[in-house]
Amino acid sequence: xxxxxxxxxxxxxxxxxxxxxxxxxxxxxxxxxxxxxxxxxxxxxxxxxxxxxxxxxxxxxxxxxxxxxxxxxxxxxxxxxxxxxxxxxxxxxxxxxxxxxxxxxxxxxxxxxxxxxxxxxxxxxxxxxxxxxxxxxxxxxxxxxxxxxxxxxxxxxxxxxxxxxxxxxxx
Length: 171
Known about the structure:
CATH class of the largest domain: Mainly Beta
Strand order of the largest sheet: 1-2-3-6-5-4
CATH superfamily of the largest domain: predicted glycosyltransferase like domains
Structural class: alpha+beta
Number of helices: 4
Mean pLDDT: 86
Radius of gyration: 18 Å
Largest sheet: 6 strands, antiparallel, barrel
């Protein structure tokens, strides 16, 4: 097995053995959550070059504010995303670009799992992921949405930077 470089990362995961098509359906639904009307409008506007002179950070914040209002409206109407019940939960001890390591030995080697990881990114959300166990506590990510992969990698880099700052402060 290759030498995997991990970075300590305090994340939580819920997961279950991938033995049902309903997990793929939830994975797809959670991936579509970014494709609301405003999100689609923004994608089209970017494709046409209409946002090139806009402040991208401000535009993103405005879009997320609109989504929060939509979520509040849905909450008031009693509409909520119903997550599937997943049997296992654990803390993630460390992450790599395509791997992660659990604190507990809950996995069975060479078994495919479906899970949701609580990601502390903006906006904070649960990221759906399919992964395959490579040991009792280590896994390799096999399927992740494109946006979630970017956020995963950004979070990893941010954790690396934080650890470097901590090491410099200790010297």
